Amino acid sequence: MIGWEDVYKVVVATVPLYVALMLGYGSVRWWKIFTPEQCGAINSLVCFFTLPLFTFEFTAHVDPFEWNYLFIGADVISKVIIVVVLALWAKCSSKGSYCWSITSFSLSTLTNSLVVGVPLMKAMYGQMGVDLVVQSSVVQAIIWLTILLFVLEFRRTGLDISSNTSDVTEPGKDLEGNNMDLASSSSPSYWSLMKAVSVKLGMNPNSYAVFIGIAWAFIANRWHLQMPSIMEGSILIMSKAGTGTAMFSMGIFMALQEKVVACGTSLTVFGMVLRFIAGPAAMAIGCIAVGLHGDVLRVAIIQAALPQSITSFIFAKEYGLHAEVLSTAVIFGMMVSLPVLIAYYAVLEFIN
């Protein structure tokens, strides 16, 4: 049974995140150190440097030959269920939209596995729980964050092309006053859009850092290789700052808003429901589908209820899509996650 000492370990792991958050908030709101333009540059630093190196560093040190692939299969099934539901909602409901489907996917599936999940799972289920939550974190980085990055880039590239096209074709003449064929400059073709997205993703280290990391993990564990210390040190010097700078950037974002809860009460509740109810429910279905039972089943459901991924906020901020909703989900998710996760732990003890 989880005790006060175990709770303290989780608190010790999360409090430093709020220290970084408050430093970021104070640097803008109280001390006026950074301008809004500089705040955007800080988020880009996190998005394109510290987070990719952080992702590479933890991915490169896993052992993929020891993974529980039934557990991973349950995770994949749960995410596919959510994707299908959101796709149907966007297509069939008058309130559905592509943009909100992206944000809802982040809220219901992407978790903070390493910072909160590792100490909590160690307290609840020992090393087995830690191994499984690390596996889920790596799979999240390989598959789901990559897909999220793709759809965000696809959306932004489409908007950029459409905006540029509108600028050229309005009011139907080019800058020299020549008439243009409006039919030839309507919305961009699918393949031209895919080409533009591929080029941009090729320049984004988040899109390939995790694949380089997992490739090294396979090679290193297959032939028992060690990463050269000079390379390890070069990666660690930036990757260790990944989580801290991400929280600092979130604090900056909060300081630039009129309210701390920028998205309002209803969206905050919506985000909490997706995070702590929809995600675990979908995972329970995935576990039943692959036949998980015992402690592996319990770990799978509890790790699906971990607080919101910090990376999801960084991506939302960089790509300009509901960053206020994701920042609120991260902040309040961490605050309420501990009692919620302990409640899940107590209830699941009655399940064989």
UniProtKB/TrEMBL annotation:
Listed transmembrane segments: 6-28, 40-61, 67-90, 97-120, 132-152, 208-225, 237-256, 268-291, 328-347
Subcellular location(s) of the protein: Membrane
Pfam families per record: Mem_trans
Listed GO MF terms: auxin efflux transmembrane transporter activity
GO CC terms of this entry: endoplasmic reticulum; plasma membrane
Keyword annotations from UniProtKB, A to Z: Auxin signaling pathway, Membrane, Transmembrane, Transmembrane helix, Transport
Domain of life, source organism: Eukaryota
InterPro entries the UniProt entry points to: Auxin_eff_plant (IPR014024), Auxin_Efflux_Carrier (IPR051107), Mem_transp_PIN-like (IPR004776)
Topology in membrane: Multi-pass membrane protein
Main location per the UniProt record: membrane
GO biological process, one term: auxin-activated signaling pathway
Job description of the protein: May act as a component of the auxin efflux carrier.
Similarity comment: family membership: Belongs to the auxin efflux carrier (TC 2.A.69.1) family.
Annotated protein name in UniProt: Auxin efflux carrier component
Species annotation: Rhamnella rubrinervis
Lineage, highest ranks first: Eukaryota, Viridiplantae, Streptophyta, Embryophyta, Tracheophyta
